[in-house]
Amino acid sequence: MNAHAIAPTEPFDTRAGALARLSFDASARALWVLLALACLYASYATQAFSWRVLVRVGLPLLLPALLAIALVALKVAELRVHLQRMNDALMRNPGEAADTVLPDSMGPTPVARLARAINACSRHRARRQAELLHVLAAYAHDLRTPLTRLNMRSELVEDAALRDALGRDLAEMAELVEGSLSCARMQCSAEEPMRAVDADGLLDALIADYRDAGRIVKLEGQVGRAVVTCPHALRRVLVNLIDNALRYGVDVRLCVHADAQRLVLAVLDSGPGIVPARLDAVFAAWYRAPETASEAPGSGLGLAIARRLTLAMRGELELANRATGGLEARLTLPLLTA
Length: 338
Fold this sequence. Notes:
Elements lengths: L13 H35 L2 H7 L1 H34 L16 H46 L5 H29 L6 E3 L1 H14 L4 E4 L6 E3 L1 H18 L3 E7 L3 E7 L21 H4 L8 H11 L3 E6 L5 E8 L4
Parallel strand pairs: 2-4
Antiparallel strand pairs: 1-3, 4-5, 5-7, 6-7
Helix pairs in contact: 1-3, 4-5, 7-9
């Protein structure tokens, strides 16, 4: 699931773009008319007056040149405006969409041709990425069988210490395989439509699942109303954040706060936290902070998947070290009520 699959947004305000294009076109037409009239007037003036008078007055000859310069300046300004809008659209959509990134007819002909070329490159890149992800998923899926055999054979090892060490290594390999599959499935999955969700019911069920598994996660606060979101993506993000908190700390809490415009879900733990310089790096796929990598197994994909799903829900995911110790993972979503 990419960041634009669930709810694609316009790369820029198409209505404003159309108005600007009409404004430029109208101004250009007016300048062309004035330039034609000025040229006709200059032609008449050169016949009606002597060159000595024309050179002294200057206006009949200077006016067409000024209008031509104004027309060129207007065209340059038009190109600058459309290129800036194209730049803004690309910055908001950094090549992750599998479909059109820019309107094919935006701006003058040279800009429109550039937009079509960018769209073609984006679609080609998306197809290549999808092919690579399918290959990744196939390899990861096929690794399950030999891992299962290794697990069964490791049980036959008589040395208990060696058997336990093999079990830990195989568990870590299995987690890497499952992480690779999850990543590939997330990237290639079909879009999940937004719909009205009983947010409090979803959170209560999630906490109950952890309680049934013998893991204690405290829930503080409530939403108080149904919200419009992607329930499977939301649950997956919270599971990844809570699992990460349980892996490195205790006293894990899920704090909920909602106001008129946004829903904030914060997962708090009492673990070692993250070095401030690495708070952004941990969102990269396969990355694990050196100071915590040896404390607990993990694939390094949980936070990367959580952030991508958060972007798909039009939200934000941030990490911060708590003043009292531990880490806070804050998920902020726009509160679209049902």
